[in-house]
Sequence to fold (433 residues):
Amino acid sequence: MGRITLSGDQYIFFILFIRMGIMASMAGVLVTSSYFKRLLLLESRSARENWILSLIFGALLTAGTAVRVLVGYEGVDLSLSGTFLAGLMGGVIPGSGVGLFVSLPALLRGEWLALPFTLLCGLTGGLIRRYAASREEFWGFSPLLFNTLYRSARILKLEHRIDSRAMIFLSVLALEIARTIVAGAGIPHLLFAFRPDHFIVTLCAWLSTLACIGIPLKIWNNTRVEILLEEQRSAAVQSRFDALRRQINPHFFFNTLNAATSSVWTDPEKARQILVKLSTILRRLLHGTEDFVPLSKELEFIDDYLSLEEARFGPDKIRVEKEIDPRALDVPVPAITLQPLVENAVRHGISPKIGGGTIWIKASLDGETLSITIGDDGVGFSGVTGTGIGISNVRERLKVAYGLQGIFTIDSAPGKGTTVGIELPVEREARHV
Fold:
């Protein structure tokens, strides 16, 4: 195979492509770290967080400058774009700190203008961040420069101001021009810069620096948008979950208050007991804000509810049998999900049955699955199941919380009672409810 020899300008073109690839790789690797991602996307940071961000950027960029100084490989020197980007992402202090770190290897080589130049790069990026009308603007800076310039031109025409994207473009271009002028003024040893033979190559070097800023911003902004979308989805799920929970409470209170009202004239003492127990349950509901509670707490709430029903119907009307696996007591379940099922068993199963009946509550833990059964030997029913408010609400809450992992079944027959089965994963999906 013949040996390929590159001219000076061809070598610079090659280095420019390598430099953009290195910046893209570095940005992609960094954003895989959840800690760096959280640090990067914070709207405001403490002094400690600012210094940590400076150290992360500074360590990587200083290593690149050191490789250039020691080995002579210019492709890893990202001092201008990297320092400017550090200021843009972190602010004036991180940008200036990174500028200080990055200049150290160059200073050791005698490039005395490296320190003020990199400090200026970091400071400029930080000032653009500080005075940006909206953070969305600089996040929208793109390596597709024509797209960036078009949007900036529209803002200039409509709002009569220079937006952050245009400020990034103009500032980086000015810094590159200043660096090129210094290098071409006969003192190239004071500050590193490419020195092509043709102006078109110099222009490409400037554009590659803009791309080295736009590429990481594009990568990080995609991650940022994904996080924002996930937060919006989580907020929507949370709102839906809360609405379903609010629907259960009035339904339960309406039924109970009706029972108290009907007893006021015929049995005032029973009405008083019902209202006292209802106030206890209401206090517990108002003070409980958890979406998920241990099964043990949900069973305690069912006991409170059944004591209320006992006050309404008498101690001989409803009998309760429990078979609870002790290992299942700490498993989290959606709050106020089992109570509507027990209420249905009382109202539609046991209450119409002459002589009352029995409700059984079973819970067992089988591997990573929690199985809960609530049944009764009441009157039962036939036809379409699960059309009432309570059942429909429970179905929907399980769907919101567990997706397809939550299983809900109903088995009923006239004269034989009704059995409701629920199967839930112990480790539910991260649905943020």
The chain has 14 helices and seven strands.
